[in-house]
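=== RUN LOG ===
request id: a7f3
mode: sequence -> structure
chains: 1
length: 256
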Amino acid sequence: MRHLYFIAFKSIVIKEINRFSRIWVQTLLPPAITMTLYFLIFGQLVGSRIGQMGGVSYMEFIAPGLIMMSVITNSYSNVASSFFSAKFQRNLEELLVAPVPHYVMIAGYVAGGVTRGLLVGLIVTLVAMFFVDLHLQHPLLVVITVFLTSVLFALGGLINAVFARNFDDISIIPTFVLTPLTYLGGVFYSLTLLPDFWRGVSALNPIVYMINVFRYGFLGFADISVGFSVSVIVGFCLGAWALAYYLVSRGIGLRT
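=== RESULT ===
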């Protein structure tokens, strides 16, 4: 039986990978172009005036945050659009009536989103290497952080798709929630520059902890305790998985 579950999981993952790889010009190329512009504008033009931040050049400081930003965006959007399309076209009903546990279905979609997120992250990392020398201080921590972050936002995309009623609903959360949280997550600045009040407000932003740990893996310094940041990420992952499983297993919002 477990072998059959693995076949189902693998089939969903392959379908998801084929889905975004067929249109790589729309899914993989734009992030590379966008991040190149970020490095040119914020890194070279603006960064040359700012100088150093945290003891490193400004471009080196923002590089981990830009990589993480691309991972977050693509992990989220892949699952949100794919899961909602399956729901909208009523293909999802075939999976729901199939003898496959709901956790297998969720894991398949999440794995597809994680694959795209990590692939885009790798592409952006290669782009960043043209502008700055990247050195991994803690490679294992970098891998764990980027994987957990990708899983979390892939689950977030699935939850968004569950509640979405039309294709416009897919863009509401990324536009009005995800983008502001990302830009206010410490990608372009250190939290030590903020007044105490705004530093406390930033502590409510989960993306702050992800970028904080990811930057620590590259540069070796962090604004917030690394252990606490990892605990926050793991907690959000568990909470998102529990919510996604509850919604799918109860069939909430799965019919348009």
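=== NOTES ===
The CA atoms of residues 162 and 253 lie 5 Å apart.
The mean pLDDT is 88.
=== END ===
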